[in-house]
Amino acid sequence: MDGVLFDSMPMHAKAWVKALNDFGIPFTERDVYLNEGSRGWDTVQKAYHRLYGGECSSETVDKIYATKSRVFETLPPAQPMPGAYALLQELQRYNIHSTVVTGSGELTTINKIENTFPGIFDPKKIVTAYNVEKGKPYPDPYLKGLEMLDVAASDAIVIENAPLGIQSAVAAGIFSIAINTGPLPDNDLSEAGAELIYHSMDELQSDLPLIISR
Questions:
Q1: 60-93, pLDDT tens digit by residue?
Q2: Residues of the chain by 3-state class (helix, strand, coil), percent to 5
Q3: CATH 1.10.150.650 fits domain 9-74
Q4: Distance between CA atoms of 129 and 88, rounded to whole angstroms?
Q5: 193 CB burial (10 A radius; 0-12, 13-18, 19+)
Q6: Disulfide: which of 95, 127, 166, 197 matches 192 by Cβ 3.0-4.6 Å?
Q7: What are the residue ranges spanned by the domains of the chain?
Q8: Within 13 Å of residue 109, how many CA atoms lie on the same side as its CB?
Q9: Order of strands across the sheet that contains 157-160
Q10: Strand 175-179 and strand 196-198: pairing?
């Protein structure tokens, strides 16, 4: 979702840095992009453990995540990623069904999916942070997506923009394509296991016939 369907990662980065820094936990925008795709709980725990070497209390995690959400809501609304809707419509023409597998729990953004991409997704088949106990890079989120769509991993394609998301998809046995819409180098995505790397939805859509015929 973030960084693939919506150009929302710059806002998430600002919100995470502000929230964690306010609680005395060092965190940079690069850290945000490297942890992109994680559930909010996991992001806080990883940052806390790096600083203190222990586990953050659930109460503190909730406070930090609530702060992050409040900051995020004050920032400009995320716009659709250029070319995303056209790509999704093209996939439909190939009779390929799509779902969203996100580590996000930002309900305001999730609720925008149906309005922004009408006729594409079944809202009952969207995987969020609340659907799995282990988030990306574990395979669980994408395995849940396969279950919801009732398809085998060998019949699926993942379009991701984050290293942890690519690792999750690869661990689930799914052919993974990276759309590098952020500041990380392509190498971070290829090392995570991306089979192909593009830098825009238009680039990917132009290659879609070739990819589907493979």
A1: 999 999 999 999 999 998 899 999 999 999 999 9
A2: 55, 10, 40
A3: no
A4: 23
A5: middle
A6: 166
A7: 9-74, 84-213
A8: 27
A9: 157-160, 175-179, 196-198
A10: parallel
CB 164 within 8 A of CB 194: no
Q: Is 84-213 assigned to CATH 2.40.40.10?
A: no
**What is the pTM (predicted TM-score) of this model?**
0.89
125-136 burial: b if 16+ Cβ within 10 Å, else e: bbbbbebbeebb
Predicted confidence (pLDDT) per residue in 110-153, tens digit: 778 989 999 999 988 999 988 999 999 999 999 999 999 999 99
Cβ contact 126:100 at 8 Å: yes
For residue 177, the cross-strand partners are 159, 196
Tell me the residue type at 102.
Answer: T
Q: How big is the chain by its Cα radius of gyration, in Å?
A: 17
3-class SS at 118? coil
Three-state DSSP at 177 gives strand
Question: Do 9-74 and 84-213 fold alike per CATH?
Answer: no
Tell me how far apart the alpha carbons of residues 87 and 174 are, in angstroms, rounded to a whole number: 19
